[in-house]
Protein backbone atom coordinates (compact mmCIF):
# COMPACT_ATOMS: atom_id res chain seq x y z
CA UNK A 1 0.00 0.00 0.00
CA UNK A 2 1.26 3.49 -0.84
CA UNK A 3 0.62 5.71 2.18
CA UNK A 4 0.71 9.50 2.28
CA UNK A 5 1.60 10.63 5.79
CA UNK A 6 1.47 14.12 7.31
CA UNK A 7 3.57 14.75 10.38
CA UNK A 8 6.10 12.26 9.02
CA UNK A 9 8.96 14.03 10.79
CA UNK A 10 7.13 14.31 14.11
CA UNK A 11 7.21 12.14 17.19
CA UNK A 12 4.49 9.62 16.37
CA UNK A 13 4.82 10.17 12.63
CA UNK A 14 8.51 9.27 12.39
CA UNK A 15 7.88 5.99 14.20
CA UNK A 16 4.86 5.33 12.00
CA UNK A 17 7.04 5.75 8.91
CA UNK A 18 9.41 3.12 10.29
CA UNK A 19 6.52 0.78 11.13
CA UNK A 20 4.96 1.08 7.68
CA UNK A 21 8.22 0.58 5.81
CA UNK A 22 9.11 -2.43 7.97
CA UNK A 23 5.82 -4.03 6.99
CA UNK A 24 6.16 -3.63 3.25
CA UNK A 25 4.26 -0.39 2.65
CA UNK A 26 5.51 2.54 0.58
CA UNK A 27 5.47 5.96 2.25
CA UNK A 28 5.40 9.52 1.00
CA UNK A 29 5.77 11.99 3.84
CA UNK A 30 4.84 15.65 3.88
CA UNK A 31 8.11 17.51 4.48
CA UNK A 32 8.26 21.10 5.68
CA UNK A 33 12.04 21.42 5.30
CA UNK A 34 14.88 20.04 3.24
CA UNK A 35 16.21 18.34 6.34
CA UNK A 36 12.89 16.56 6.87
CA UNK A 37 12.85 15.46 3.24
CA UNK A 38 16.41 14.14 3.49
CA UNK A 39 15.57 12.20 6.66
CA UNK A 40 12.59 10.56 4.94
CA UNK A 41 14.62 9.67 1.88
CA UNK A 42 17.39 8.18 4.04
CA UNK A 43 14.80 5.78 5.46
CA UNK A 44 13.62 4.75 2.01
CA UNK A 45 10.50 6.94 1.93
CA UNK A 46 9.61 9.67 -0.53
CA UNK A 47 9.05 13.30 0.40
CA UNK A 48 6.41 15.77 -0.74
CA UNK A 49 7.36 19.40 0.02
CA UNK A 50 4.67 21.30 1.93
CA UNK A 51 3.17 22.04 5.29
CA UNK A 52 -0.18 21.86 7.04
CA UNK A 53 -1.36 25.13 5.48
CA UNK A 54 -0.50 24.00 1.95
CA UNK A 55 -3.89 22.49 1.17
CA UNK A 56 -2.99 21.90 -2.46
CA UNK A 57 -0.02 19.77 -1.39
CA UNK A 58 -2.23 17.82 1.01
CA UNK A 59 -4.66 17.07 -1.79
CA UNK A 60 -1.90 16.07 -4.20
CA UNK A 61 -0.45 13.70 -1.63
CA UNK A 62 -3.84 12.20 -0.81
CA UNK A 63 -4.88 11.82 -4.45
CA UNK A 64 -1.66 10.03 -5.36
CA UNK A 65 -1.74 7.45 -2.56
CA UNK A 66 -3.71 4.35 -1.63
CA UNK A 67 -4.23 5.59 1.92
CA UNK A 68 -3.63 8.65 4.10
CA UNK A 69 -2.40 8.97 7.67
CA UNK A 70 -2.82 12.48 9.06
CA UNK A 71 -0.73 13.05 12.20
CA UNK A 72 0.45 16.65 11.75
CA UNK A 73 -0.83 19.34 14.10
CA UNK A 74 0.42 22.83 14.86
CA UNK A 75 0.09 22.35 18.65
CA UNK A 76 0.22 26.12 19.05
CA UNK A 77 -0.55 26.32 22.78
CA UNK A 78 -0.35 30.12 22.70
CA UNK A 79 -2.97 30.27 19.95
CA UNK A 80 -5.16 27.15 20.09
CA UNK A 81 -7.70 28.73 17.75
CA UNK A 82 -5.07 28.68 15.00
CA UNK A 83 -4.31 25.01 15.65
CA UNK A 84 -8.03 24.22 15.49
CA UNK A 85 -8.48 26.17 12.26
CA UNK A 86 -5.53 24.49 10.56
CA UNK A 87 -6.62 21.02 11.67
CA UNK A 88 -10.15 21.43 10.34
CA UNK A 89 -8.93 22.84 7.01
CA UNK A 90 -6.44 20.00 6.56
CA UNK A 91 -8.99 17.27 7.32
CA UNK A 92 -11.48 18.88 4.95
CA UNK A 93 -8.91 19.08 2.16
CA UNK A 94 -7.80 15.47 2.54
CA UNK A 95 -11.36 14.16 2.81
CA UNK A 96 -12.35 16.01 -0.35
CA UNK A 97 -9.42 14.42 -2.21
CA UNK A 98 -10.51 10.95 -1.05
CA UNK A 99 -14.24 11.35 -1.72
CA UNK A 100 -15.69 8.38 -3.56
CA UNK A 101 -12.49 6.32 -3.43
CA UNK A 102 -13.15 4.12 -0.38
CA UNK A 103 -9.51 4.62 0.59
CA UNK A 104 -8.42 4.61 4.26
CA UNK A 105 -8.05 7.97 6.01
CA UNK A 106 -6.56 7.47 9.47
CA UNK A 107 -6.28 10.70 11.41
CA UNK A 108 -5.02 11.64 14.86
CA UNK A 109 -7.61 12.56 17.43
CA UNK A 110 -7.50 13.16 21.17
CA UNK A 111 -9.08 11.98 24.39
CA UNK A 112 -9.10 15.18 26.45
CA UNK A 113 -12.60 16.24 25.41
CA UNK A 114 -14.11 12.85 26.30
CA UNK A 115 -14.05 13.21 30.10
CA UNK A 116 -17.22 11.69 31.59
CA UNK A 117 -16.20 11.14 35.20
CA UNK A 118 -15.03 7.69 34.05
CA UNK A 119 -12.49 6.37 31.58
CA UNK A 120 -13.86 6.92 28.09
CA UNK A 121 -14.12 4.12 25.58
CA UNK A 122 -14.35 3.71 21.83
CA UNK A 123 -18.14 3.95 21.84
CA UNK A 124 -18.04 7.50 23.19
CA UNK A 125 -18.61 9.97 20.33
CA UNK A 126 -16.58 13.14 20.22
CA UNK A 127 -18.56 16.10 21.61
CA UNK A 128 -16.54 18.51 19.46
CA UNK A 129 -18.51 19.92 16.55
CA UNK A 130 -17.72 22.95 14.40
CA UNK A 131 -14.65 25.04 13.71
CA UNK A 132 -14.51 26.66 17.16
CA UNK A 133 -14.35 23.37 19.06
CA UNK A 134 -11.19 21.44 20.06
CA UNK A 135 -9.26 20.27 16.99
CA UNK A 136 -11.83 22.20 14.97
CA UNK A 137 -14.29 19.34 15.36
CA UNK A 138 -12.16 17.42 12.88
CA UNK A 139 -13.13 13.95 14.10
CA UNK A 140 -16.81 14.51 13.41
CA UNK A 141 -15.99 16.33 10.19
CA UNK A 142 -14.03 13.33 8.92
CA UNK A 143 -16.83 10.95 9.87
CA UNK A 144 -19.30 13.08 7.91
CA UNK A 145 -17.35 12.03 4.80
CA UNK A 146 -17.88 8.31 5.41
CA UNK A 147 -21.19 8.58 3.56
CA UNK A 148 -19.23 10.08 0.66
CA UNK A 149 -16.98 7.08 0.24
CA UNK A 150 -14.09 7.92 2.58
CA UNK A 151 -12.90 5.22 4.99
CA UNK A 152 -12.36 7.62 7.89
CA UNK A 153 -10.80 6.13 11.04
CA UNK A 154 -10.05 8.10 14.23
CA UNK A 155 -6.87 7.16 16.08
CA UNK A 156 -7.37 8.65 19.53
CA UNK A 157 -3.99 8.92 21.21
CA UNK A 158 -3.38 8.91 24.95
CA UNK A 159 -2.29 12.31 26.32
CA UNK A 160 1.22 10.95 26.74
CA UNK A 161 2.77 8.90 23.94
CA UNK A 162 6.08 8.21 25.62
CA UNK A 163 9.52 6.88 24.78
CA UNK A 164 13.09 8.01 24.32
CA UNK A 165 13.05 11.28 22.41
CA UNK A 166 9.50 12.28 23.36
CA UNK A 167 9.10 16.06 23.35
CA UNK A 168 5.47 16.08 24.50
CA UNK A 169 3.77 16.70 27.82
CA UNK A 170 6.11 14.57 29.97
CA UNK A 171 9.16 16.34 28.60
CA UNK A 172 7.59 19.66 29.68
CA UNK A 173 7.04 18.29 33.18
CA UNK A 174 10.66 17.16 33.36
CA UNK A 175 11.87 20.54 32.10
CA UNK A 176 9.72 22.30 34.72
CA UNK A 177 11.17 20.13 37.48
CA UNK A 178 14.69 20.94 36.32
CA UNK A 179 13.92 24.66 36.17
CA UNK A 180 12.12 24.96 39.50
CA UNK A 181 13.99 22.33 41.49
CA UNK A 182 10.79 20.51 42.45
CA UNK A 183 8.65 17.89 40.74
CA UNK A 184 5.10 19.08 41.20
CA UNK A 185 1.61 17.72 40.85
CA UNK A 186 -1.68 19.62 41.02
CA UNK A 187 -3.80 19.46 44.18
CA UNK A 188 -3.76 16.05 45.80
CA UNK A 189 -2.36 14.40 42.66
CA UNK A 190 -5.35 12.11 42.35
CA UNK A 191 -6.09 12.93 38.72
CA UNK A 192 -4.70 10.64 36.05
CA UNK A 193 -3.68 10.31 32.43
CA UNK A 194 -3.69 7.38 30.07
CA UNK A 195 -0.42 6.46 28.40
CA UNK A 196 1.01 4.43 25.51
CA UNK A 197 4.52 3.74 24.25
CA UNK A 198 5.27 5.26 20.86
CA UNK A 199 6.12 1.91 19.23
CA UNK A 200 2.74 0.51 20.25
CA UNK A 201 1.01 3.64 18.95
CA UNK A 202 2.74 3.37 15.57
CA UNK A 203 1.79 -0.31 15.28
CA UNK A 204 -1.85 0.55 15.93
CA UNK A 205 -1.80 3.16 13.15
CA UNK A 206 -0.61 0.48 10.73
CA UNK A 207 -3.30 -1.94 11.86
CA UNK A 208 -5.90 0.79 11.41
CA UNK A 209 -4.83 1.29 7.81
CA UNK A 210 -4.88 -2.40 7.08
CA UNK A 211 -8.02 -3.47 8.94
CA UNK A 212 -10.28 -0.77 10.40
CA UNK A 213 -13.70 -0.20 8.78
CA UNK A 214 -15.02 3.28 8.06
CA UNK A 215 -16.25 5.11 11.13
CA UNK A 216 -14.00 3.23 13.58
CA UNK A 217 -12.69 4.92 16.70
CA UNK A 218 -9.43 3.40 17.94
CA UNK A 219 -7.88 4.09 21.33
CA UNK A 220 -4.09 4.08 21.37
CA UNK A 221 -3.99 3.45 25.12
CA UNK A 222 -1.83 0.91 26.94
CA UNK A 223 -2.31 2.16 30.51
CA UNK A 224 -5.76 3.41 31.41
CA UNK A 225 -4.79 5.47 34.43
CA UNK A 226 -1.43 6.77 35.67
CA UNK A 227 -1.84 9.09 38.67
CA UNK A 228 -0.32 12.55 38.34
CA UNK A 229 1.35 12.25 41.75
CA UNK A 230 2.99 8.99 40.59
CA UNK A 231 4.27 10.71 37.44
CA UNK A 232 5.67 13.52 39.58
CA UNK A 233 7.24 11.04 41.99
CA UNK A 234 8.96 9.17 39.14
CA UNK A 235 10.36 12.42 37.75
CA UNK A 236 11.47 13.46 41.23
CA UNK A 237 13.33 10.19 41.79
CA UNK A 238 15.05 10.39 38.43
CA UNK A 239 16.13 14.02 38.86
CA UNK A 240 16.74 13.67 42.60
CA UNK A 241 14.51 16.67 43.40
CA UNK A 242 11.73 16.91 45.99
CA UNK A 243 8.12 16.15 45.06
CA UNK A 244 5.43 18.57 46.19
CA UNK A 245 1.81 19.55 45.52
CA UNK A 246 1.04 22.72 43.57
CA UNK A 247 -2.18 24.56 44.36
CA UNK A 248 -4.62 24.53 41.47
CA UNK A 249 -4.64 28.34 41.47
CA UNK A 250 -0.85 28.30 40.93
CA UNK A 251 -0.73 25.53 38.34
CA UNK A 252 -0.38 27.72 35.25
CA UNK A 253 2.21 29.94 36.92
CA UNK A 254 4.25 26.87 37.86
CA UNK A 255 3.82 24.60 34.82
CA UNK A 256 3.02 27.15 32.10
CA UNK A 257 0.40 26.11 29.53
CA UNK A 258 0.60 22.53 30.82
CA UNK A 259 -0.93 23.67 34.11
CA UNK A 260 -4.29 23.69 32.30
CA UNK A 261 -3.99 19.95 31.62
CA UNK A 262 -1.92 18.30 34.34
CA UNK A 263 -4.72 18.59 36.87
CA UNK A 264 -7.28 17.05 34.49
CA UNK A 265 -8.45 13.47 34.34
CA UNK A 266 -7.72 12.23 30.81
CA UNK A 267 -8.25 8.49 31.02
CA UNK A 268 -9.54 5.96 28.52
CA UNK A 269 -9.70 2.24 27.96
CA UNK A 270 -8.69 0.35 24.82
CA UNK A 271 -10.38 -3.01 25.43
CA UNK A 272 -12.51 -2.77 22.28
CA UNK A 273 -9.52 -1.76 20.14
CA UNK A 274 -7.39 -4.60 21.45
CA UNK A 275 -10.12 -7.19 20.93
CA UNK A 276 -11.07 -6.04 17.44
CA UNK A 277 -7.61 -5.64 15.93
CA UNK A 278 -5.38 -8.01 17.86
CA UNK A 279 -3.39 -5.11 19.22
CA UNK A 280 -1.61 -5.91 22.49
CA UNK A 281 0.70 -3.18 23.82
CA UNK A 282 4.14 -4.56 24.63
CA UNK A 283 6.25 -1.45 25.29
CA UNK A 284 7.48 -0.25 28.67
CA UNK A 285 5.12 1.67 30.93
CA UNK A 286 5.35 5.42 31.36
CA UNK A 287 6.91 5.16 34.82
CA UNK A 288 9.40 2.58 33.54
CA UNK A 289 10.42 4.92 30.72
CA UNK A 290 10.94 7.81 33.13
CA UNK A 291 13.01 5.63 35.48
CA UNK A 292 15.11 4.29 32.58
CA UNK A 293 16.13 7.78 31.47
CA UNK A 294 13.90 8.27 28.42
CA UNK A 295 13.64 11.95 29.40
CA UNK A 296 17.26 12.48 30.37
TrEMBL record:
Write the signal peptide boundaries.
none
A cellular component term (GO) from this record?
cytoplasm
Domain NAD-dependent epimerase/dehydratase, which positions? 3-213
* Top-rank lineage group of the source organism: Bacteria
State the SUPFAM superfamilies in the record.
NAD(P)-binding Rossmann-fold domains
According to the UniProt entry, its GO molecular function terms are: aldehyde dehydrogenase (NAD+) activity
| Protein name (Swiss-Prot/TrEMBL) | Nucleoside-diphosphate-sugar epimerase
Lineage of this protein's species?
Bacteria, Bacillati, Actinomycetota, Actinomycetes, Micromonosporales
Amino acid sequence: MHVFLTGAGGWIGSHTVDELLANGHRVTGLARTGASAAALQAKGAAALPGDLDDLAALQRGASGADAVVHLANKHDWANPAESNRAERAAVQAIAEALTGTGRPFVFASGLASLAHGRPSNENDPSPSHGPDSPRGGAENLAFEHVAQGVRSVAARFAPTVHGTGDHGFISYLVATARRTGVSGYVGDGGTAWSAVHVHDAARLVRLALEQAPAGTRLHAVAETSVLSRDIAAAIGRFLNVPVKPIEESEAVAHFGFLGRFFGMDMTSTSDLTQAAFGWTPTGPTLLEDIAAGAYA
